[in-house]
Hints:
Radius of gyration: 21 Å
Shape: globular
Bound molecules: copper (II) ion
Strand content: 15-25%
Number of strands: 11
Amino acid sequence: MDDRVGRARGDVARRKFLAAVGITGAAALAGCSGKGIGAPVAADEPEDGGETPDATHTSPDLERWVDEVPRPGVIEPNGTKDGQPRYEVEMAEVEQKLHRDLPPTTLWGYGGQFPGPTIEAEQGEPIYVRWQNHLPDEHLLPEDPTIHDDIIPYDEPGARVVPHLHGGNVEHESDGKPQAWFTRDFERTGPDFEKKDYYYANDQPPATLWYHDHSLGITRLNVYAGLAGFYLLRNDHERALDLPTGDNEVPLVLQDRRLPTASNSDRVSGRTSSSTSASTRARRCSCTTTRRRRIAARAASRRTALNPCRRSCSSTWRPRKANGSPRSSRTN
Ligand SMILES: [Cu+2]
């Protein structure tokens, strides 16, 4: 096992690129400044040097090129199962600094970090992963209970998660189907949940894969909160290509975020630990209460209505049109 892990580490080179965009809606992020976190681009800066099109939805201006590119690191197996490496990866709420000049941001991370730790695997050598949900009951971000409200128990406690290996050729029991979600310590599970230890056969060509959450109705929120990480599948052929290795192999993930500061936290769904005011916290609590009452009322009447909680909690929320798209066409 150790040989396998050691071989998988650092011997191989490739460029790693992962574009994972968890968004609460295009409008919510359309105004993100090119001066965002470590951003080397300025695609949305007006040529005349004026303000961005929607200056109310920008992250704070931050100094560029002042932080090292963070490296998520490689996770080691905790043991073996059926003779194969077995990993345990915890999902938890964490505080993490995302820029030198920002206070720590509250995130949901795999392995206590964002992005999650990299899993390195070898073609043809299966692994097991036990994904552990240790997240708080209340979501970090506001949920929209109008999405699949007929099959998602929004009014029951527990953060619903289910990890999915993006691009992986995976047996269906381990594929992270949207309705195979589970809450903390598997207290509650979705109708498609089948097993706790996911099995990844790694029977496919090597590639830069990534894992991310996939829970029905809140995939976008869970990924936005930080639940994503790399999964690198290696083999001898790739090692023979003499690509950059070790410190020269830099995993990169591009994600859109709006980051709250003391001045804009009322407009941003996420939060930083030191900028979440008491009033903001109180508002989140009352919104949750209001939301649950609203869900109960709607369940009784089966009437789809505007959600006043969402309207007050999120500047990006939009009411559904009366003749809007059917639920089944809504995606995460
Ligand atoms: Cu995916």
